[in-house]
Known about the structure:
Layout: H1 2-14
Amino acid sequence: MRRCSILFVVLATACEDNSLYCNEDVEQNLLAVDGDCDGFLTADDCDDADNTSTVVSEDGDCDRVLTVDDCNDSDATNTLTFADPDCDFAPTGYAYITQN
């Protein structure tokens, strides 16, 4: 009886649940900390359910416009860079005119 117990313990410890890991690979992140398996931890990922989403370190407001291209990376509704490269809130070719 004792011999069977030891055998059972050895078999039980030899089995791992790989389904807890990205791509069932124990060398990759746990799904609990990288839900979309893109290599970025949940805390750093803009959308941990989408492996094509941006990461907070490159897109502060997570609007899919990188910080270097974003006029205001603190405001996710402000993504004018492509229409307004100089970030003056006027489309390219236009300018605001103020009256004094």
